[in-house]
Amino acid sequence: MQIHTIVFDLGGVLIDWNPRYLFRKVFQNDSARMEYFLSEICTASWNVQQDAGRTFDEGCAVLKKEYPDYADAIDAYHFRWEEMLGDANLEVVSMLKFFKESKFPVYALTNWSKEKFPIARNRFDFLQKFDGILVSGEVGLKKPDPKFFQLLFQTYSFEALGSVFIDDSLENIEAAQQLGMHGIHFKNASQLRKEFSELGIRGL
Questions:
Q1: Continuous H helices in 41-141
Q2: Beta bridge partners of 165
Q3: What is the CATH T-level fold of the domain 5-16+87-198, as seen in this structure?
Q4: Mean pLDDT throughout 120-144?
Q5: Segment (H or E) for 150
Q6: pLDDT digits (tens, 9 = 90+) for 183-198
Q7: Cα 32 → chain centroid
Q8: pLDDT in tens, 44-69
Q9: I need a surface site. Which of 130, 135, 192, 200 has the fewest CB within 10 A?
Q10: Domain coordinates in residue numbering, the chain
């Protein structure tokens, strides 16, 4: 396969994000209470609605009506969101730079709130290196919806066949593969480097 374009997911691949970084502090290392909160109240499925375009004010208001005793923690998810961001994965960032130096077009396709993505953009300089980034919350589509991938192809004028998509979600990888992209289910930098080597790209 002749590779012409590289597409990265951001959270979990290039950027470490975990709500536990914040809520260990909020719940003062009460792990059981923290895990209850993240599995039953501010859940992944709740958070993805913000990724799809709902505002955090709207999302938090819904939860605070149902869980008034957790109102402060729910607000923390909104107003202390930046504390959930970890560091950049520098090994993968170096691969991004390699692709740019090798003249590959490099894009990002990310499920991220339109309100919170500017925080990441301001914090991580390497985000400026992409030729383009589609943010789910800005366009009202999210992975694994094939329409989100198709919008990427249309916006930046490239074909699925011959493009490589890297994501830590197997569901998203399978959606990309169904459209003709080569998917790499990200586990760690060493595995990613090996899979690119098998595709004929060495020097990462």
A1: 44-51, 56-66, 71-79, 90-101, 117-123, 136-139
A2: 7, 183
A3: Rossmann fold (3.40.50)
A4: 97
A5: helix 146-156
A6: 999 999 999 999 999 9
A7: 26
A8: 999 999 999 999 999 999 999 999 99
A9: 200
A10: 5-16+87-198, 18-84
